[in-house]
Design brief:
With 178 residues, the protein is an alpha+beta fold. Helix content is 31%, strand content 19%. The chain has a single domain (3-172), classed as Ribosomal protein L5 (50s Ribosomal Protein L5, Chain: A). The protein is built from four helices and five strands. A five-stranded antiparallel beta sheet has the order 2-3-1-5-4. Helix 1 (3-18) packs across helix 4 (162-172).
Length: 178
């Protein structure tokens, strides 16, 4: 049974009763997941963003977009319009598959993992997670990567309440620090 189906059939109803929400449309859900990798070394090497895009496509099953610099920063030798990162936005079934893999496989692989800090929530009920390297994902072959790069994952929820978002993600299997 898929993670999306489990969420819709069991987790959503349990969360609604815990939060005393009668309207099923008002129950918090995950809207989207955004995965972002910044590539500062793209200033020097041209094909870095393509390598990162290949890795991100393996992780997510979706083709990422290459982000470009909006402004020129002379201190970092960045010109306007220059490729400096890779980003992908997941929704629907791919999003739930990625979250299941993240919560059940990737995060437990982090050495000395004690949970996600609660301060990782922003004011709008969204969670930001920074991972130290892409080799935590089982799809990435360690021998084929050129450099270990970190990635940022933003989990966007439909609620503006930080506590409701925390309860939602705990029900889905995410572990938080106490």
């Amino acid at each position: 049974m898929s993670f999306q189906k489990i969420f819709k059939e069991t987790i959503k109803s349990e969360l609604g009763t815990e939060l005393n929400i009668v309207n099923p449309m008002a129950i918090p859900t995950v809207s989207k997941v955004v995965i972002n990798v910044g590539a500062g070394e793209a200033v020097v090497s041209k094909n870095v963003t393509e390598k990162i895009a290949g890795d991100i496509a393996l992780l997510t099953g979706q083709k990422p977009i290459i982000t470009k610099a909006r402004v020129a920063v002379s201190a970092f030798k960045i010109r306007r319009g220059q490729p400096i990162g890779v980003k992908v936005t997941l929704r629907g079934a791919r999003m739930y598959d990625f979250l299941e893999k993240l919560f059940k496989i990737v995060l437990p692989r982090i050495r000395d993992f004690r949970g996600i800090p609660v301060k990782s929530f922003d004011g709008a009920g969204n969670l930001n997670i920074g991972l130290p390297d892409q080799t935590l994902f089982p799809e990435i072959d360690y021998d084929k990567i050129d450099k270990i790069r970190g990635l940022e994952i933003t989990i966007v929820t439909s609620t503006k309440n930080k506590d409701h978002a925390k309860q939602l993600l705990q029900k889905m299997g995410l572990v938080f620090q106490e």
